[in-house]
């Protein structure tokens, strides 16, 4: 057996083996998976914009006008009107002076954090931050202080220890695997008092939280108060790519120093045009955001009514803890047989022993299908005998 085969075997033994599944057709509340119609409860296309005719039309038109690809990094030959227009609109939407596009959220986080926190400095990161933030901290060569999830006292202690070396606090706005929200007012206050920057990842908050879907910082009534906000175009905005909003000096600095911006090909023009069309839809149809909120409340309540805890979720991301990776995948498979598609989330995406099903709601789901899904989820958990010593059953029993 080759060494790679052995490592794969090890992943299988630990219940951590992953494989791709083929979706027939576009994202939507219901999709065809391996030939079967299923309710999709694990897409981040929160507002149903990935398959919206205006978004698709904008991409098609841009492809005809600007071509399929940007040809190079924007600093070389790839800067085009669709990029600049989208940046201006994003900055205005988020209430910042300036915005800079990146190829993806992963690239935005790694490039921005590594540019803002340097060798000899300290970056402060919530323990449940997304992997792209963790990797950004690693790339920065700064010392990383990982504070306990949402624990401002722990963070405050770390900031005091770091003194003048404190460079950056970075947090998810909405935590991607738990659906809870960062204590933003406290983080802004701490950043101010300790003279360091705060960066908020709005990947799951844009289009979902705050007035008109402006995000978690806006939802806290603190629009423009975080020094840097990052967001993605590939989730509620239905396209692909990401952006960082900040003052002009900071975005110019990032344009010069963020390696994932400098050394990576610009977003394809059709993708940027699709992002712009989605943003226009978001601004003109805020009722989509309201419907998403309503649907999220429906699913959380329906699961609670079935005796299942959704942890601290306050948003469209609704986790149901299982514990072991293998049991989580068994539950996911059982649900699939019943026509509900929700991926099991396992380490290293979440900490060891905290595997879960992560349900994500879309504005395009119907109330009845969310309530029906909750009944199926609870029944499947019971059938699998996730009993007594397993978290999901402790919840069922509670
Ligand atoms: C919180 C968070 N930040 C960043 C990213 C990365 O964004 P992208 O998928 O555009 O690379 C994701 C997920 O993909 C995420 O959940």
Helix content: 40-55%
Shape: globular
Low-confidence stretches: 393-398
- Strand-residue proportion: 15-25%
Q: Give a short account of the largest sheet.
A: 7 strands, mixed
Amino-to-carboxy terminus distance: 47 Å
**What structural class do helix, strand and pairing data support?**
alpha/beta
Strand order of the largest sheet: 4-10-9-8-7-5-6
Q: Mean pLDDT score, rounded?
A: 95
Q: What is the strand tally?
A: 14
Radius of gyration: 21 Å
H/E series: HEEEHHHEHEHEHEHEHEEHHHHEHEEEHH
Number of helices: 16
Name the features.
398 residues; alpha/beta; seven-stranded mixed sheet; four-stranded mixed sheet; 44% helix; binds pyridoxal-5'-phosphate
Describe this structure in words.
This protein is an alpha/beta fold and 398 residues long. Helix content is 44%, strand content 16%. The protein has 16 helices and 14 strands. It has helices spanning 3-13, 53-66, 74-78, 81-94, 105-116, 131-140, 152-162, 184-193, 216-219, 248-257, 259-262, 269-284, 287-305, 325-337, 367-383, 391-397; strands spanning 23-24, 30-33, 36-40, 98-102, 122-126, 143-147, 166-172, 197-201, 228-232, 242-246, 317-323, 340-341, 344-345, 355-360. The strands form 3 sheets. Strands 4-10-9-8-7-5-6 form a 7-stranded mixed beta sheet, with helices on both faces. The chain has a 4-stranded mixed beta sheet with strand order 1-2-3-12. A 3-stranded antiparallel beta sheet has the order 11-14-13. β5 (122-126), α6 and β6 form a beta-alpha-beta unit. α4 (81-94) packs parallel to α12 and α5 (105-116) packs parallel to α6 (131-140). The protein is globular and about 55 Å long. The termini are far apart. The model is unreliable at 393-398 (pLDDT under 50). It binds pyridoxal-5'-phosphate. Pyridoxal-5'-phosphate (PLP) binds next to α5.
């Amino acid at each position: 057996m080759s060494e790679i085969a052995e490592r794969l075997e090890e992943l299988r033994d630990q219940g951590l083996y992953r494989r791709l599944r083929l979706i027939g057709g576009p994202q939507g509340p219901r999709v065809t998976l391996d030939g079967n119609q299923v309710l999709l409860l694990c897409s981040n296309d929160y507002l149903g914009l990935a398959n919206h005719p205006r978004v698709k039309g904008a991409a098609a038109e841009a492809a005809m006008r600007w071509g399929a690809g940007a040809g190079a990094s924007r600093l070389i030959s790839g800067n085009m009107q669709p990029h600049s227009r989208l940046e201006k609109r994003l900055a205005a939407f988020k209430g910042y002076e300036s915005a800079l596009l990146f190829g993806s959220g992963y690239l935005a986080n790694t490039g921005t954090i590594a540019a803002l926190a340097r060798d000899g400095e300290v970056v402060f990161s919530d323990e449940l931050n997304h992997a792209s933030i963790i990797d950004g901290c690693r790339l920065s060569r700064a010392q990383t202080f990982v504070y306990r999830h949402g624990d401002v006292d722990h963070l405050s202690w770390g900031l005091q220890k770091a003194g003048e070396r404190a460079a950056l606090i970075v947090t998810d706005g909405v935590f991607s695997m738990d659906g809870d929200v960062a204590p933003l007012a406290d983080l802004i206050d701490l950043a101010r008092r300790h003279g360091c920057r705060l960066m908020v990842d709005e990947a799951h908050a844009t289009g979902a939280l705050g007035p008109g879907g402006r995000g978690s910082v806006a939802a806290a009534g603190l629009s423009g108060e975080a020094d840097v906000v990052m967001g993605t175009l590939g989730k509620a905005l239905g396209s692909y790519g990401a952006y960082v909003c900040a003052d002009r000096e900071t975005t110019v600095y990032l344009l010069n120093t963020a390696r994932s911006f400098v050394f990576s090909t610009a977003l394809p023009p059709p993708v940027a045009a699709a992002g712009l069309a989605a943003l226009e839809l978001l601004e003109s149809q805020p009722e989509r955001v309201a419907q998403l909120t309503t649907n999220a409340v429906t699913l959380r309540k329906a699961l609670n009514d079935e005796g299942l805890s959704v942890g601290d979720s306050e948003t469209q991301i609704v986790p149901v803890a299982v514990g072991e990776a293998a049991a989580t995948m068994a539950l996911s498979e059982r649900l699939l047989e019943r026509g509900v598609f929700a991926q099991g989330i396992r380490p290293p995406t979440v900490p060891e022993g905290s595997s879960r099903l992560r349900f994500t709601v879309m504005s395009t789901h119907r109330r009845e299908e969310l309530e029906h899904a909750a009944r199926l989820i609870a029944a499947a958990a019971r059938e699998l005998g996730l009993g007594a010593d397993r978290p999901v059953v402790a919840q069922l029993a509670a």
